[in-house]
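Q: What residues go here?
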């Protein structure tokens, strides 16, 4: 199975807490296998994301911080990972999506990079794919969600997790949940 890890560049503790949390939530809910955060170290943010996995399942979802983001990207690339940078300056997703799906079927691992403020030029050079979710500015949250949804063609939206403590029972006009105590055998 290929692995998809999201790297969030340049997190700023006070300004980006909500957006970076949403990047992590989208990565988890839309089928990625983990989120790695770089920029300012923010343990509270990491533990908030871990709490979500504890309650809603997918404890295998990797959540961590990396100081040396450049070394991390270069190492991933040297290990044969496909480096994808989401940027409005890139080439439209419609052009690349077939090729990316083929790589996914070949079980290639993907590192998907999203920025915060200005993304260093180096990232554009190291990435094999600079992918635009359209060439208009919007957000790392929307860009990531659309990218993953296109890659998985909506299959990620029907996943449920055996290790979840809370699970939603979809209904047409009310709120229904099941609460499980997975600690009890
Ligand atoms: N001015 C910044 C730059 O130089 O990249 C953009 C900042 S934007 C608020 C934050 C992140 O959202 C970007 O780094 C990129 O990952 C993502 N993003 C925003 N619009 C995008 C688009 N149209 N396509 C792909 N990614 C996008």
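A:
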């Amino acid at each position: 199975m290929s692995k998809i890890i999201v790297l969030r560049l340049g997190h700023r503790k006070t300004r980006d807490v909500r957006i970076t949390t949403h990047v992590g939530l989208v990565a988890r809910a839309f089928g990625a296998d983990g989120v790695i955060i770089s920029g300012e170290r923010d343990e509270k943010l990491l533990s908030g994301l871990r709490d979500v996995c504890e309650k809603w399942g997918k404890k295998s979802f990797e959540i961590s911080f990396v100081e040396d983001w450049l070394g991390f990207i270069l190492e991933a690339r040297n290990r044969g990972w496909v480096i994808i940078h989401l940027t409005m300056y890139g080439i439209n997703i419609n052009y690349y999506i077939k090729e990316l799906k083929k790589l996914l079927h070949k079980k290639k691992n993907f590192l998907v990079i999203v920025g915060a403020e200005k993304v260093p030029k180096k990232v554009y050079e190291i990435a094999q794919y600079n992918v635009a979710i359209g060439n208009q500015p919007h957000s790392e949250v929307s860009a990531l969600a659309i990218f993953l949804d296109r890659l998985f063609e909506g299959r990620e939206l029907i996943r449920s997790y055996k290790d979840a403590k809370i699970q939603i029972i979809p209904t047409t006009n009310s709120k229904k949940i099941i609460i499980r105590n997975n600690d009890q055998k």
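A: Context that may help when evaluating the design: Strands lie at 4-11, 34-39, 62-65, 82-92, 110-114, 129-132, 166-168, 177-179. The domain at 4-160 is CATH 3.40.1280.10 (Alpha/beta knot).
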